[in-house]
Amino acid sequence: MATGxxxxxxLTWPIEPWVxxxxxxxxxxxxxxxxxxxxxxxxxxxWGRWRPLCFWLGLATIFFALDTPVEWYARQLFWVHxxxxxxxxxxxxxxxxxxxxxxxxxxxxxxxxRRPLARVAIKHPALAVLRRLFALIVTPTAxxxxxxxxxxxxxxxxxxxxxxxxxxIHHLEHGLFLCxxxxxxxxxxxxxxxxxxLSPFKRxxxxxxxxxxxxxxxxxxxxxTSPFYAYALLPFRPGGISALTDxxxxxxxxxxxxxxxxxxxxxxxxxxxxxxxxARANSFTPRQVGVAK
Amino acid sequence: xxxxxxxxxxxxxxxxxxxxxxxxAIPGYFIGVWTGNLFGLFDDQNTGVILGYAFAVIxxxxxxxxxxxxxxxxxxxxxxxxxxxxxxxxxxxxxxLSLDHKVIGMxxxxxxxxxxxxxxxxxMLIRTSLLVPDASITPPGQYIxxxxxxxxxxxxITSAVILxxxxxxxxxxxxxxxxxxxxxLEALSFxxxxxxxxxxxxxxFWGGFPTGWTGYPPLSEQAGQGxxxxxxxxxxxxxxxxxxxxxxxxxxxxxxxxxxxxxxxPMFVWGIFATAIxxxxxxxxxATALVQLAMDRxxxxxxxxxxxxxxxxxxxxxxxFFGHPEVYIFILPAFGIIMELVPHFARKPLWGYRTGxxxxxxxxxxxxxxxxxxxxxxxxxxxxxxxxxxxxELISIPTGIIFLVTLGTMWRARIWFSVxxxxxxxxxxxxxxxxxxxxxxxxxxxxxxxxxSYFSMAHFHYTxxxxxxxxxxxxxxxxxxKMTGKMLSPLIGRIHFWWMFxxxxxxxxxxxxxxxxxxxxRVSVYAANLQFLNDWVTVSAYLLFGSMLLFxxxxxxxxxxxxxxxxxxxxxxxxxxxxxxxPVPAGNFDRVPLIVGGPYDxxxxxxxxxxxxxxxxxWWFSFFYLRALNNDQAxxxxxxxxxxLGFGLVVLALVVLxxxxxxxxxxxxxxxxxxxxxxxxxxxxxxxxxxxQGFGMWHLGxxxxxxxxxxxxxxxxxxxxxxxxxxxxxxxxxxxxxxxSGDTVVRPHSAATFGWILVxxxxxxxxxYLLLYLVK
Lengths: 293, 776
Prior knowledge:
The complex is a heterodimer. Chain A is an all-alpha fold. Chain A has helices spanning about 15-35, 50-65, 70-75, 80-100, 100-110, 110-125, 130-135, 140-155, 155-165, 165-185, 200-225, 245-255, 260-280, 285-290. In chain A, α4 packs parallel to α12 and α8 runs antiparallel to α10 (about 165-185). The interface between A and B is large, with 41 and 32 residues.
């Protein structure tokens, strides 16, 4: 690599301080509470050893996507950039949701910080509007609309090219992808101790419709006959491919590998729905519906 | 609410029936041709032929009596929403408009079998032509006509061969319902099929059409009037698929008997359910593409004319976006039949019920994004091909799961090898070959070599004939004792199975070899050294035809020469449809109470907009596709543009006002002041919107040949206008009869549902405005 970025030498990686800091602080909070209090593994069902594994894999994915040579390639290749986004939305976010680390991260904070923070967050009258807003955006409909709108917005050429020029905006984009990704998956993946609002059947429909809109975006890029983004201005791309080919690769990646998480969760939700339906069938006796005999 | 006597006593005394239908269809055809020739100045009578077919179909349906009910509602006469079916066992009911799902199922079965005979005769003629390597038996023009007629006829049949007869007859019985959710829609979904077949056959008089079933432009744009048969016939089949899709979904969601929970649903019903989703969403896209083709051929728009702002790829994408789900419309009901029958004859519970259903839905989901594998050789971006290859190969996973479930059920079972079970085993054998050869074809390098050869032809015949038709035979032997009251002879059945199984494999397996030896499809001339194999195949095909005749003989024998009536449950099966007596009583069940509403808020009220969304989505896709593909000049030449921003805004505002006032009205009380006031206001807004929009379209200021934008503008606003006219007709119904007869006619439920449809139309108008008026 001409510019000196090498997979073998981490010192040459394009480390972003804020990303590294965020990942490290999260990791420390998680470890702190684990060393201090027992994890809920002892009590409570639905807690497995796989949850910490999901957590670490999720964090590692964020680090891999944003702080390794992946980032360096993403500045020159559309398809790597799309892979990077998919890693955040489709890998890191669902892994973090499945890990449900929220209580543990919270307990990682010192008690002296937690108490005033909680008091302000829950009771301070100035924050009432924010609380109401938060209650609104965590509803399934809002989560679906926000995460889809976010996805489409950043593929609008003007917004996209802005992220290539302006690093702050670029960080904002990645942060939004991750946070709204977590918000999206939190509606369908169970996370301790929160309860899901959607019935099992609605979860199936939720994932199905989201899949369709993601495909529509991918199809739009796949069928385009000219490159949309400022990448076209680069004199050279790694691999020597044309800007249009690059865009079509990106679209293909969004289309097929990008659907894998959707498909897995879709099928899992179907199974859950059948489980709920079986339970209903077993508790169903003729007396309840008033059938004679 | 007081109903005036003067109105309530009246009733329609218009004679209706099959004869009236045919009598009205003939003048309808000539009126259509005359009207079309009056206006269609551009073309060789294409407008006349298309309008002739359309008017003939409308005349036929009116003559059958489809208009009586809406007319009675419009005029405020008392109507029965769903008349109680009465016990009448006359032959006449099979030849008239019946709302009994059992009669419709039998009508479907007989119609499909007759169509199958014609399709099979076409296949025999094709094989006869291939007895010799040159074109001495059929000249090339006739050969391609035979290919077109055989393929499209068979596509019509296979779209409906299980869904139509067995779906309509059995679904209500299997879920414990007395009828389908929308009996008139069900009747409509049948009665458009015979006209479709007749119209398709009429292509013979115009010399057929040269495109095969895919109808690719530019050939389909240049073809003669036989192509119009293809267009109108396929539109009718699309209508059948959408209407039966809505109906099946609504029935299965909302009309299951208490205790018939989702996890107790028979697998056949699950197969129909998944098929209904596919039909509901895929067929509107086909309808859009066909309307665009018809517009190109009659009004000289340029949707598919690459030289003039269009693109033939647009057709290929729209067609295969329908076409690939279509092949799962063929096979998912067959999967349902196999998974339904095997447990009965293995006498074991289905192994992996949930997994089987998930397999069906996995296929349903994946089928939407693999269609581009049909375009591997058409010049699409080569870098995209591996992704579609991957997605196509993924489909083999849920399909394999369905196989696993079936085989797992047979594992260590003491199988009862009855005739239906034999056909199930035949299905498994054939579909395995068909499915695995499909994995070969999804592979890009293999497809590049084998595309357009007899290999792909053998592949889809193995899945459709070896798969779907074998499953249909299994269903016939299994369920006809319930449907006709006569057991088919098991001895003839066994001979039929082995004969058909051997003849089928002997016909189609050598075609794989011929494909590898480079014999091309759709051409009657082939290399001389392939003659032996071809003659072998032709003789086998004659034998296959003979096995079908044996089946027909078995039907005739059992129906007319076997005395007595079959026992109610000859297979000792546990499922619900066998627990009713044979023949099935008119009301199906004596005592089963019905669930009125679905447990989930998904389904009924949104079903129609869901199909319509895909209809408009296909238009919007066309907009973006042609816009992206063409430079500015080809897309929208100088001087072409929407009437004006303000004009469009006025029309849009009128539609929004119509929807808004209707929305308020539909939630007001009947007969209340706001109701009486708002209904006419809404109607006035609607009429004004239609007049403005029609005026705008009449004075476009540019010709339809002027680039892609002009075509999309005309098509999109035209489609919207037609639906607005439908909405105005409904509003007129509400206004005309709303006041005199109160709540007897327009029921609150349908009024509220229609509010949603108007809101949907307004939303479509907003998107249309954004695209057509604001996007450069």
